[in-house]
Design brief:
Layout: H1 3-26, H2 33-39, H3 54-82, H4 87-95, H5 98-102, H6 109-117, H7 122-142, H8 151-169, H9 173-190
Length: 200
């Protein structure tokens, strides 16, 4: 690999890292190419060396956001398994944590963008659908024994909706109470053997 291609790959990754945070923080419409390039430390004119359009960048940024979010969730689930703790509890407690309440730009893109996903053009809708499917699969993999795989859809919907509502209420007693109630309800319904304490 030559130095030029390596520099291009580094720049590409930098753009995607910035854009994947921006899209979760500001929504699809709130991400401007000029702002992303500036935050990545690159010139606006260099954008088209990496992407044919803003939509192409957003689609890739959404993929990056979904992948990094899934990695965090899956690491947490795997760590719970090594400690003989409930993977489902680990998933619910991390997803509906107070940390996730205040950090949309590094959290799950589905909870950050779900209300906007259906209104996007096909390229972004396809990327959005892949993010939803990735979340569903993560939930399915963490289900306790005996819970029907189809339950992953209801659980994921509850987690996403609860996080969106909590963020609407804000990082305050109301938002935190909504998250706590949702964690408790999901764990009581789907994992009665869970004995861990909900994390904040």
């Amino acid at each position: 690999m030559n130095i030029r291609s390596t520099r291009k790959e580094i720049s590409y990754d930098r753009i995607l890292d910035v854009a994947s945070k921006a899209i979760r923080r500001d929504g699809y419409a709130g991400v401007a190419v000029a702002d992303v390039m500036k935050a990545a430390g690159l010139t606006h004119g260099g954008f088209y060396a990496h992407f044919p359009s803003r939509e192409a960048m957003l689609a890739k940024a959404l993929e990056r956001a979904g992948e990094t979010s899934a990695e965090v969730l899956n690491r947490n689930i795997a760590a719970a398994r090594t400690r003989d703790e409930s993977p489902f509890c680990a998933l619910v407690e991390l997803y509906l944590s107070e940390r996730h309440l205040v950090s949309s730009e590094t959290g799950c893109p589905v909870s950050a963008l779900a209300s906007e996903m259906s209104r996007q053009a096909s390229e972004l809708r396809d990327a959005s659908c892949r993010s939803v499917v990735r979340l569903l699969n993560t939930v399915k993999d963490a289900l306790p024994a005996g819970v029907a795989p189809e339950s992953a859809m209801a659980i994921a919907s509850t987690m996403v909706g609860a996080l969106q509502l909590a963020r609407t209420l804000g990082n305050n007693a109301h938002g935190k109470a909504l998250l706590a109630a949702s964690r408790k309800a999901l764990i009581e319904q789907y994992d009665t053997d869970c004995n861990s304490v909900a994390k904040t």
